[in-house]
């Protein structure tokens, strides 16, 4: 009886402490981990959202770029962080593909984190170097099939959005391309711009300005319908690759055990940020838009993450591309 009583008292004390913490939260600077290099598309999304959320929370949110191993190094750091709301994690679709791509993870993609909410679904574009000979997707596919040993496909590394899109493309057209992995989207795009590699599939947040500037060619977008920001660019489906749809969604997380009142505060701040006219306009400039309010909630991100893990697992297994 005494032991049970003491445990109850301790539990009440912990609950009271958590509630007091949540009522005062936040009282200092928050760190948001982005598991990729600065300047990439996920980093861009994070900085836009962090600025607006910081205004709502009345505390600065600083971005810390912890790149490497397809985002798993940054994820592992967050999974081990103190669950007090002062360490956040913003990751893209790679959070759902890591369990399939990596045989050994020091964390569980679902159980090691508290979801805060979805942020945006970023379309992807199939692009090529400026002087690539094909004038449209039909010609590109024919050229690739005829020159599959010569055509080089760039990606930002194992587990990156460009890697995943490339796997889908090669599966869809039944061709194995010479893949050139880079340590990030920036170096991959630089070599595409310089003509060192031929084609690439990447997020509109990274390709829109290059496309509009005429520095690279674009052959299709990976959405069901054409993009308002690039109305002349056909979807992959209408251009010759039926059913080819992929969006790079971004989600925000906190370490497992972060008090629910803190998660609620963060979720509210995120949803406010996604309604911010400045954020919405910047997203539009990059060819994307914030998710609907109902999807920017913890339960929506948790359900989406589970469904995406189920979706990508078989695709990765079929491709046979793993990392230790």
UniProtKB/TrEMBL annotation:
UniProt cross-references to CDD domains, sorted A to Z: PBP2_BugD_Asp
Superkingdom as given in the UniProt entry: Bacteria
Gene3D superfamilies: Bordetella uptake gene, domain 1, Periplasmic binding protein-like II
Keyword annotations of the record: Signal
Signal sequence residues: 1-22
Family of the protein in this entry: Belongs to the UPF0065 (bug) family.
Name listed for the protein in its UniProt record: Tripartite tricarboxylate transporter substrate binding protein BugD
């Amino acid at each position: 009886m005494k032991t049970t009583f003491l445990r109850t008292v301790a539990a009440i004390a912990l609950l009271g402490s958590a509630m007091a913490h949540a009522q005062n939260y936040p009282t200092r600077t928050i760190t948001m981990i982005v598991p990729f290099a600065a300047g990439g598309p996920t980093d861009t999304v994070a900085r836009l959202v962090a600025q607006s959320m910081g205004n709502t929370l009345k505390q600065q949110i600083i971005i810390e770029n912890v790149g490497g191993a397809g985002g798993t190094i940054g994820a592992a750091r967050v999974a081990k962080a103190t669950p007090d709301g002062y360490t956040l994690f913003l990751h893209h679709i790679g959070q759902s593909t890591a369990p399939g791509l990596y045989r050994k993870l020091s964390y569980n993609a679902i159980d090691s984190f508290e979801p805060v909410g979805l942020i945006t679904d970023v379309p992807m574009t199939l692009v090529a170097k400026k002087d690539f000979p094909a004038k449209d997707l039909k010609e590109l596919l024919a050229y690739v099939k005829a020159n599959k040993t010569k055509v080089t496909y760039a990606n930002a590394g194992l587990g990156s959005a460009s890697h995943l899109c490339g796997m889908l493309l090669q599966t869809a057209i039944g061709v194995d391309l010479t893949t050139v992995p880079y340590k990030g989207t920036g170096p991959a795009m630089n070599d595409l711009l310089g003509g060192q590699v031929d084609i690439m599939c990447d997020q509109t947040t990274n390709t829109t300005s290059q496309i509009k500037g005429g520095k690279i060619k674009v052959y299709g977008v990976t959405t069901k319908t054409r993009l308002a920001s690039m109305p002349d660019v056909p979807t992959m489906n209408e251009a010759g690759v039926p059913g080819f749809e992929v969006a790079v969604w971004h989600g925000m997380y906190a370490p497992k055990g972060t008090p629910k009142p803190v998660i609620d505060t963060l979720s509210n701040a995120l949803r406010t940020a996604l309604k911010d006219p400045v954020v919405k306009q910047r997203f539009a400039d990059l060819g994307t838009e914030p998710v609907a309010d109902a999807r920017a909630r913890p339960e929506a991100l948790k359900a989406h993450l589970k469904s995406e893990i189920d979706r990508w697992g078989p695709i990765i297994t079929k491709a046979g591309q793993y990392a230790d």
